[in-house]
Structure formats: C-alpha cells, structure tokens
Amino acid sequence: MLSGLAIAGTAALLAGCGSAPESSSTSGGDASDYLPCMVSDAGGFDDKSFNQLGYEGLTKAADELGVEPKTVESAAETDYAANLQSLVDQGCNTIVTVGFLLAPAAAEAAAANPDVEFVSIDDTVDLDFDGTTDEPNIKPIIFDTAQAAFLAGYLSAGVTETGVVGTFGGMNIPTVTIFMDGFAQGVDYYNEQNGTDVKVVGWDRATEDGSFTGGFEANDTARQIAQGLIDQNVDVLLPVGGPIYQSAAAAIEDSGKTIALLGVDADVFETDPSVSSLLLTSILKQIDVGVYDAIMAAGGGEFDVTPFIGTLDNGGVGLAPLHDWEANVPADLMTQVEELQQAIIDGDLTVESYLAQ
C-alpha cells in the first residue's frame, strides 16, 4: 500500500502545483502568537540530509517571524502518530511532517484537527487515490528528483573507469526509488548516445527492485550492502536514504579504491565535510526553501495548500557543484550534462517517474 501513496492521482495534483519556492525576507507581520512545528522521520534532524534540510527551513522562518518553533524527532514509524498528537496538544498552528512514511499519520491528524495546518514533505497524502490531497488543511511539497538523478547518472557513466556504477536505498518506496530509477535512466541514455555499455548494479528498472537496507540508519547492514556493490567493481556509488551514505563512505574508504560518492537531498559536500573528498556531486531537492516559504506564508496568515512539485524547470531539484571533483571531469561532459538539463526543461527529453507530467 505504501508504494502507492504518492503515485495514484498525481497527475491531477500536478495541474495545480505551485511555482518554485523562493526565499523572501518579508515578515508575515505580527506573528508572536503563531507556533510552527515539525516532526522528523527516523534519522533525526542531524541526518545531514532531508530531515536536516526541513529543520533548517523551519528555524530560518521562525527566526524571521520572531517565534520559537517546536520540534520532535521520530526514532521509528511507531512514533509518528504520538509525536503528531503531542504537537497538536501543545497548540501548534502549522505542523510540518518530513518524509513519505509520515503520510498516513499526517492524514489522520489533519482529519481530526481541521483547524491545524499541515505541510507534508515528500507525499501528496492521497491515501484514497482519488487524485486529490485527502484533507483540505494539508499542503504537499514534493520533488521530481528523477530529473536531477538522470543528470547524475549520465555524469557518472561519463566518469566511470570500470564501466560499473551502483546504487542502493533505504527502503523500496517511491521517494527513494525515484532517485535510483532516474539515475539508471541517465546511465542508459549515456550508453545510447555514446555507444558504451556502462552497467548499473543495485537497481533493476524492469523489476523495480534492487538493494535496500530496510531502514535509514547508518549501520552495518548499509555498510555490507555498499561493500557488496564495491565487490562488483563499481567506481561510482549512489546511496539513497539519509545517513546511509555515511556507511557507504566508510566502505569506500576501507576498500582503498578510488570510488566516487553521490549525495542526495542536500549538498553533502557542505553538510558533511568528513566525506567531501569522496563526493562527485549531490542530487538536490530544496526542502529547506519549500518549508521556509510555507511557514512564512502561514505565519503571515496566508497558508496555501496548493501543492509544490520541484523540478529542474522551477529550480526545486538540481545537481550540486562538482567541488573537488571538478578537475577530474572533462569539460565536454559537463557541457553535455548542461545541454541535457535544458532539454529536460524544454520538454525535449522526458525522464520517467511517478511525478512526470
């Protein structure tokens, strides 16, 4: 059931999607009585990934509004409902739920508390699959990261020396596999355009299955899966699932091989300097800006439930700079990546995903 939560009916939501979130310094006026809140997914607010980005967006908006936000971290899925209820009980005006897996709990809380505003990160909260968000007090903020992952896949196929690139995820859910599938599409396109045969391990587009850790923790399981891919001769590795990249980085360092790491959500080069030397780039989604704009609007009494869907066109997704890897990437390859980005924006090249129009 979870695998379909964000898929069914998305086309109807796309028709009403909002414009790109843009930072604004305009205060929402007297918001001293306004209380913004947030519930994290498992992994916590220091995951250097999507939970952290959401938290940064919330705190930035709260600072500008002159209010003190309330936050609660989830250690497991069983915490979601109780954490949401605790924030409702504390009088929160707007509650941000960070992560696809919180959608069922968010829908239940929103239905039971129609006067509370909810912002859902990474899910449309369409549990009855009718093409609309289930409750009128929920704003979805979602991202077509397949577009940016396509560019990362093409780039990776262009820099690999072994001819094998790999990916693995935390769980087989759409917000994870959208990265993995977009990545594989980019590799396939590189092969088509250049007559090469770069292989992707860890994800099978035909079966829509691959290598998963079963969670979003940096642990031995994640490290073992990363090692298994390294043993298949990969020299570019994309872990998708918050802090599991840390386990991948440890496996890369232990291998003694030159293997490029790809980050997701945030620019991991900036959020975690301990792995910066390994990073080729990161596949970005502007969760922080989306949360910031939603809270600023709500704090000013202008809460808008129109879904925001991040794309390359509106700047909601993209690739981070190459940073230390720039000298190792041929200039003509980056020119090709930039041309592909424009082709996707112009509609001349379609990247398949459950969020594609």
Automatic annotation (TrEMBL):
Record's bilayer topology term: Lipid-anchor
What cellular component GO annotations does this protein have? Answer: plasma membrane
Q: What are the protein's UniProt keywords?
A: Cell membrane, Lipoprotein, Membrane, Signal
Q: Provide the ABC transporter substrate-binding protein PnrA-like domain boundaries.
A: 38-345
> Main location per UniProt?
membrane
The record, for CDD domains, names:
PBP1_PrnA-like
Q: Which InterPro entries match?
A: BMP_lipoprotein, Mycoplasma_p48, Peripla_BP_I, PnrA-like
Q: Which family does it belong to?
A: Belongs to the BMP lipoprotein family.
What is the name of this protein?
BMP family ABC transporter substrate-binding protein
* Organism per entry: Microbacterium caowuchunii
Its taxonomic path starts at:
Bacteria, Bacillati, Actinomycetota, Actinomycetes, Micrococcales
